[in-house]
Amino acid sequence: MNRDVTDEAASKEMDTSMCMSPSHDHNPENLPYVHKVGVPRRQNLLKQFTASVKETFFAGNPFQPFKGQSRLGKFVLALQAVFPIVGWGKDYNLARFKGDLIAGLTIASLCIPQDIGYAKLANLPPQNGLYTSFVPPLIYAFMGSSRDIAIGPVAVVSLLLGSLLQKEIDPVKDALEYRRLAFTATFFAGITQFTLGFFRLGFLIDFLSHAAIVGFMGGAAITIALQQLKGLLGISNFTRKTDIVSVMRSVWGTIHHGWNWQTMAIGISFLAFLLLAKHIGKKNKKLFWVPAIAPMVCVILSTFLVYITHADKHGVQIVRHIKKGINPPSFKEIYFTGKYFGKGFRIGVLSGMIGLTEAIAIGRTFAAVKDYHLDGNKEMVALGTMNVVGSMTSCYVATGSFSRSAVNFMAGCNTAMSNIVMSCVVFLTLEFMTSLFKYTPNAILASIIISAVVGLIDVEAVSLLWKIDKFDFVACMGAFFGVIFASVEIGLLIAVSISFAKILLQVTRPRTALLGNLPGTAVYRNILQYPEAKKVPGILIVRVDSAIYFSNSNYIKERILRWLTDEEEQLKKKGLPTIQYLVVEMSPVTDIDTSGIHAFEELYRSLQKRDVQLLLANPGPVVVNKLHASKIATLIGESKIFLSVADAVRYVPKTEEP
Amino acid sequence: MNRDVTDEAASKEMDTSMCMSPSHDHNPENLPYVHKVGVPRRQNLLKQFTASVKETFFAGNPFQPFKGQSRLGKFVLALQAVFPIVGWGKDYNLARFKGDLIAGLTIASLCIPQDIGYAKLANLPPQNGLYTSFVPPLIYAFMGSSRDIAIGPVAVVSLLLGSLLQKEIDPVKDALEYRRLAFTATFFAGITQFTLGFFRLGFLIDFLSHAAIVGFMGGAAITIALQQLKGLLGISNFTRKTDIVSVMRSVWGTIHHGWNWQTMAIGISFLAFLLLAKHIGKKNKKLFWVPAIAPMVCVILSTFLVYITHADKHGVQIVRHIKKGINPPSFKEIYFTGKYFGKGFRIGVLSGMIGLTEAIAIGRTFAAVKDYHLDGNKEMVALGTMNVVGSMTSCYVATGSFSRSAVNFMAGCNTAMSNIVMSCVVFLTLEFMTSLFKYTPNAILASIIISAVVGLIDVEAVSLLWKIDKFDFVACMGAFFGVIFASVEIGLLIAVSISFAKILLQVTRPRTALLGNLPGTAVYRNILQYPEAKKVPGILIVRVDSAIYFSNSNYIKERILRWLTDEEEQLKKKGLPTIQYLVVEMSPVTDIDTSGIHAFEELYRSLQKRDVQLLLANPGPVVVNKLHASKIATLIGESKIFLSVADAVRYVPKTEEP
């Protein structure tokens, strides 16, 4: 009965269409379709190849503006492509500079104490942190295209670099070699970033899923915060390991004779102040500058306090010495041979990738907010160049900082000029003010780092992951616990593995669905989603929801046959007529390879043995071409390939119904 | 004008549907749709999880028959699941045995000379080849579910094993250690196969694409044939390397003083005979037994010839000695500790995987021809068990042989009983006839191997690859040249890498298409495939052809925006009205993860800035659920999610048109 409804509706629709397009001459008896399945003309092989390379590597079509330009125009465009500052510099004015100046000064006040603390995380002297906030931001300002990112050392990369480097060289005993290896790693981090961008392989970083990053960042934040207990409690004998078990054992083991109450008093009270400032900034977005300048205020207050109370004589550890003057060259310190070359390379690739992930995520976020386009590959070239130059000027791996970029944005930055302003402030600090930090207690740096990394723990995002996608949640938790209980690398490995497992699942076990007719229409939909959809007697309609490739062709074939077997068993139980036609709805099948073609051939033969006819509905252009190239279209029968499921159902002769 | 046609057609279809389903009460003014987008009830988390685990690992639903069975019934079913022989043994009869006997005798006559030759390829004594055709086929006959596969040593695995093993141990100098490592590798090959099957990870072997296998097999066949030049030309100093350059240098270097003309005469004349037999068998399928028994005939004739002419005194190398008696135990020879443990493990995993790939491919092929179901995972358990037992009884890695399985099939085998018959013949040979092979010339073994591996070069498949899918062709050629010019492992590595690259491309750069309305229908199709499809003024319809995951979410967002920008530019040039609505057709989008949700949120905001409204058409059940869970459905507006593109287009008020 349902079939009748469908047919009637369909034929009415057909009638309609017939009056609409009287030019089509067709015989309604034999060929009741207005449109045939389109077989696109096969493209030239070279054309096809270039088109696909273009889409893969030059998705943004970066060469389009060059078309039809004069030589000079092309040169200016090329210059602008490499140095976006040439582009925005032309229209730069005082109004814009005002915003950039305020933003630059704000992030400078935030970055100076952070830099000193992050350098400690990387087991490097404090000045190296400051160096990293001087040269790289300058380079980036010329080459980068993000308007909001704030460049410099960041907590997670510092931790990763520090924990990887200290496995190779002892940072205290062999300080010089350690620093050399750090520069080597920085150099190769830059080379990695540059290479990925230059060869337009930027899409590779998309393989670290959002979920994995959330978990990794959260885990790293907790690990970093735990490391700060050393400074905050004034413990001198602290473990080198980063996992929570070792750290907590180290902390509790020293409770009776290792904690320093003066240090604790300073550290904890200022931490409370910083967290309060953060809370204020969150409550009232206009007071964003409160948490931004709070760290500098803490540093000034606490330094003054220690200086007048001589607390350093009572076991409160202080920064003591920051080398004066700007970045010394370090090109000669990079290992280009020897056993540390390979190690530096490996560490560099890893920290370069993490740095990239962070910077691109930040860049994209703010680009979306302000709605400007960000070419990820161009960004990578800029980040790579700045790290290569950085490695030759005593900097370690720099990237975009989440917290400082947010402050930069809220302070009203307009262009990368704010990075130049920040860079100038750091320059002045290095030249004239390093001695002021002598009495700054380490506990303050620990509090500043803790209050900074707290923001990396994104509970809201985790709860959203749980709500939306359980698999993402598992990936997130895997990365999180991996970082906390094992190490940063293990956490990263877990994150990448789970991300990959998801991709593998996607390509090996695609979904399929049984379709039914929505009463009164020519529309066929998943019967699980639309309970009102009715199956058509004698016809089984299966939709395959993926490209059919070697990785899933066999599964798809077997799944379709299983649908058929299950359905026939049910029909038999109910004493209903069996299936005579199997319609495969191929709209979602965007591509098919030789394995897929073979699978269809096998499916066809299996169906023949069961006396079931195979009909195909709406294969896409690529699929149609390949069905024809492989002669399988002839095997199945050209006349059994339809524009839509409705057409295929209409094709089934009524007389065959019982 | 086109819009009018669509609308008219649509409204007529609507009218039709209204008369069809008078029970639906709706107001045609506000809600002109019969069916709303279905929001399936969210499933219980545990249920969802088990369902997805079941679909991933237990796709064939192997536990279904157990339902509602008595305890005894369950026991019998379980026994049958592990030992399919219990199942088919019940109905076994004389008529079936007749077929199996003939098939078994035929493959036995083919396998005995092949075994001796393949053992040479693996640098093992000839008896080990025969051992491998005795125990493993017996085990398989009890546990395997393929009815046509012929088990034993095969050329490609022998070559792979031999070339991997001789890198670790010299097979001539340290023959005992070499053999022990071979058994170790065999043991771990079996463990690998068993583990994959037991944990139902069998889908992993699907990652070696059909194209890659064709190339790999072809390359291996040529490499094996080249190796046989040693035996065929009677060269004594032959290179250990397998790449074509080294081998040809070795061959030409010995042309003046290393070739033995008697050997060549025997070898080449019998090779010609074998190839002729093969040709006859191919021409007339009924004469399949000609190439099947030809090798045995060759062995008998040539052995007799050498015996009476004393050709072995003139430099014709002969087999000399095959140890009499069946397999000695070798459990104690397996390395479970020491440096060879790790190496044996690695080699075992690799050769186990290759053996698996070959056996499963054969099993599937014949299962499809005879239309019976083959559970890949159960097969792996059977293959794994047989290799583990084999490693303890002096066998090396056994698997299904392409050539012998085809003969088995053509000779009319009905069940795995033919393997038992073959096994018995090999048993008799080992016990009573080994001395008969003393004078068999090595050249004959070389000819037999060459004529066997020629069948692995599948030119037809390669030309099909070229026709259907250029990427597959590249993968095939990569594997082929990798094996020929570098080594078997390099070829395998290339094959796997290219297969993976294809998967990565698939998941990072999914296709998108612009849709247009087919005049006179409510159907929307790709305008590139259907040139008659007309764009709807003011509306851009984009179809996304893939699940939206972290690996492609960003690309998809940017690609949609690029479609919009390109289209608007074109419209501007022509002076036509701009786009006001963007319809995303989501039928092919089967799933979306948190990254995808974020991308849609960003897309929505970008569109808002451009004054373009976002409409969604036909999201699937999973996507609809996640859109709701993430509140993005509320952001976009529930009323802007439609059942179909036609509905979405109908929604756009006509008054907004110019």
TrEMBL record, chains A, B:
Transmembrane residue ranges: 181-201, 207-226, 261-280, 287-308, 347-369, 381-403, 409-430, 442-466, 478-501
CDD domains (alphabetical): STAS_SulP_like_sulfate_transporter
Protein name: STAS domain-containing protein
Stretches assigned to the STAS domain: 529-652
Keywords associated with the record: Membrane, Transmembrane, Transmembrane helix, Transport
Topology within the bilayer: Multi-pass membrane protein
Compositionally biased intervals (Basic and acidic residues): 1-15
Taxonomic lineage: Eukaryota, Viridiplantae, Streptophyta, Embryophyta, Tracheophyta
Biological process terms in GO annotation: transmembrane transport
Recorded superkingdom: Eukaryota
InterPro entries linked: SLC26A/SulP_dom, SLC26A/SulP_fam, STAS_dom, STAS_dom_sf
Region Disordered: start-end pairs: 1-23
UniProt entry tagged with the keyword Transmembrane helix: yes
